[in-house]
Amino acid sequence: MSECQIDRLIEEAIEREGDYVDHPADRGGPTRWGITQAVARRQGYMDDMRYLPRSDAAAIYKRLYWFAPAFDKISETAPKLAAELFDTGINMGSGTAIAFLQRALNALNRGARDYGDLIVDRRIGPATLLALNAFLHKRGRGGEEVLLKAVEALQGAHYVRLAETRPSQEAFLYGWLANRIG
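RESULT FIELD:
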């Protein structure tokens, strides 16, 4: 994926996340452009979240949610999947997005006949990349779409489970399903 395409993904995320929000049921607290106060503080931003510059948010997205989890490596062979993992990582954490990918790859390896099961370690390393490449090679052109559906199914199930177990999160379920799945 080119730098221009990554920047487009980031701009789409910023537009989807919106400006300043401090919803009482949002466990992330004050947020601007989708960047929580806790993340901003860890990245050195100490001012009021209402004033977090859009350019700072874009830089945080690129550094923490694209390169750090190695979604750039996924994008080399599966750009649509990488874009989904990036968005899921923003909303749920990159480790959760990667766990969805690893679980889906394990479930789709036909009893380890196509490639061995992965340890769901929430990190993209050589084993995850090898399994992804083996899956895509074995399944051909439609493989990325099927894998994308599996990741989104796990994501949707996670959202419903959150709403079921934490009633305060029901306020967000409709938006999550409308804006994050598919």
